[in-house]
Amino acid sequence: MDETDTRQAIKDTALELLVRHGYRGTSFGDISTALGTTRANIHYHFGNKQALVGEVLRDYMQATLSALRAVWSHEESSLAEQVEAMIAYSRARFRHFNPAGTEGRNWSLISRLRQDADLLGDDGRRMLNHFGIELLALFTEAFSSAGRRGELAPNVVAADAALLLAAIADNAAPITLAEGGFEALEETYRSLTRIIKSSAE
């Protein structure tokens, strides 16, 4: 592997371990063992753990926000269709870390690292905060668009609905962990859709 491939392989392995075990539970030794390389090689590419985790988190956030923009900025989709696309996206991530019969594992880097935010440093905490801000802005615009399409009743405030959706999305993994599976998250998303739909009728 060339250096670019090696860096990406280290980040991919770190991502898997960080989601499963968190910041505290993931060491350069764990990554090197899983990847079949040396700790010195990881130090060479990233310097220290905080720098590696920061880069992994930045990449993960960018990929997540890009995928969610594709779902929620699609003007031709109804709000219900957007929610179903969100469920499908979340289910794919959930199943990556929770194959059938193994429910109960964490599956979101962001929710996992929020538990270890005190170890991330200022940059890491800023990134987590920025993710929440971006999520809320995306959902606010999506609900404003739904209102322009006539999908929201006049008494439904787009910003309020967006805040509820952001709270669900930002706590998606904890919801599945607390309630014993993905179905709880699915039902939470659909409940919000039903409330908005009944309000619009």
Write up what this structure looks like:
This protein has helices at 3-21, 28-35, 39-46, 49-72, 79-97, 109-114, 121-148, 158-170, 172-179, 182-200. It is an all-alpha fold and 201 residues long. The protein has a single domain, classed as Orthogonal Bundle (Tetracycline Repressor, domain 2). Helix 4 packs antiparallel against helix 5. The radius of gyration is 19 Å and the shape is elongated. 27% of the residues are buried. Residues 4-64 form the HTH tetR-type domain.
Net shape = elongated
Share in helix: over 70%
Indicate the CATH class: Mainly Alpha
Structure annotation, total helices: 10
User: What percentage of the residues does DSSP assign to strands (E)?
Assistant: under 5%
CATH architecture: Orthogonal Bundle
Would you report the number of β strands?
0
Named CATH topology = Tetracycline Repressor, domain 2
The number of domains is 1
Short description:
The chain is an all-alpha fold and 201 residues long. Helices cover 76% and strands 0% of the residues.
Primary descriptors:
201 residues; mainly alpha; Tetracycline Repressor, domain 2; 10 helices; elongated
Helix and strand layout, with pairings?
Layout: H1 3-21, H2 28-35, H3 39-46, H4 49-72, H5 79-97, H6 109-114, H7 121-148, H8 158-170, H9 172-179, H10 182-200
Helix pairs in contact: 1-2, 1-4, 2-3, 4-5, 4-7, 5-10, 7-8, 8-10, 9-10
